[in-house]
Amino acid sequence: MDKYNVRATVRNVSFLSTLITTTKDGKKRPSIRFWRIFTIVLVHLLFVLSYRVDVQILEGDISASRILGFHLADAFMSLQVFLATHEIHVNLLIGSLSILAFYIIFGGRGFCSWVCPYSLISEIAEKIHENLRAKKIVKPRVFDTKWRYAFTILFLALSFASSSLVFEIFNVVGIFSRFIIYGYFHAIWLVVAMLVVEIFFSRRAWCRYVCPVGATYSLLAKPNAIKVSWDKEKCDHCLVCTDVCLVPHVLFMTKKGAKTDDSKKLFRIAGADCTLCGRCIDVCHQDALKFDNGFKKLI
């Protein structure tokens, strides 16, 4: 992908070409998307190795695991367990606090782009959706992202009322993760059904409007040190970044005429929904977007 010579929108470039980016001096290197996919594959490879050949580096699955014997647990899943059983399980508490601490520091919804396996196949579905949209076979349908919080409350209430983890029955992230690790096929049809919805009805519907896991991590986004920064003076307002973004509303300032602080040149993307996927950085031909490491300011 040569972002300096091609408008690298979802429609204009092939999925595979986005794994390699061309620099200004013509050199090719792995894109941020490549490294995200590498991370997702590596995490699940370690899970598979633990299950298949007993290489116990990372055990379990995406919802609850152990890394070198240390417990990790998805915070939303742990909250469901607490509401369903009315008990605090020490290992889940330790695991949840560890995960929460990590994402508070490093990335809020970074889980959604750098760890979640469903995000990978959802991005492929997104490409198909945009191709169909270009041919006017499907129409774009956009909803309020706050629906995720409504679903979060609903599933927590159902866990409390039914004493069971209701969300895990429908959780396409967990289902797909267990399919990869253990080969479980019994609920994979839900993953396929969700992909069909995203291809023919609404782009990235699960991640944008449904997933309580992403909603939980979005609450941690404000204090994290790593964010995307935008250089107002470099930007030419082409809006390719908003085309590829999972949650384009976080890039509202890139629109021409958007109200911004005139005294500032650099802006940190502060939206809670940003997943730090880096797609905006990958496609910006003006290099107006980049990762901003807040740790440097602490040193």
Automatic annotation (TrEMBL):
The chain crosses the membrane at residues 34-53, 88-106, 149-173, 179-201. Gene3D superfamilies: 3.30.70.20. GO terms for molecular function: 4 iron, 4 sulfur cluster binding; metal ion binding; oxidoreductase activity. Its EC number is 1.7.99.4. Keywords: 4Fe-4S, Electron transport, Iron, Iron-sulfur, Membrane, Metal-binding, Oxidoreductase, Repeat, Transmembrane, Transmembrane helix, Transport. Residues 226-256, 265-294 form the 4Fe-4S ferredoxin-type domain. The keyword NAD does not apply. It comes from the Bacteria. Pfam families: Fer4_5 (PF12801). One of its GO terms (cellular component) is plasma membrane. This is Menaquinol dehydrogenase NosGH, membrane component NosH. It comes from Campylobacter concisus (strain 13826). The gene is nosH.
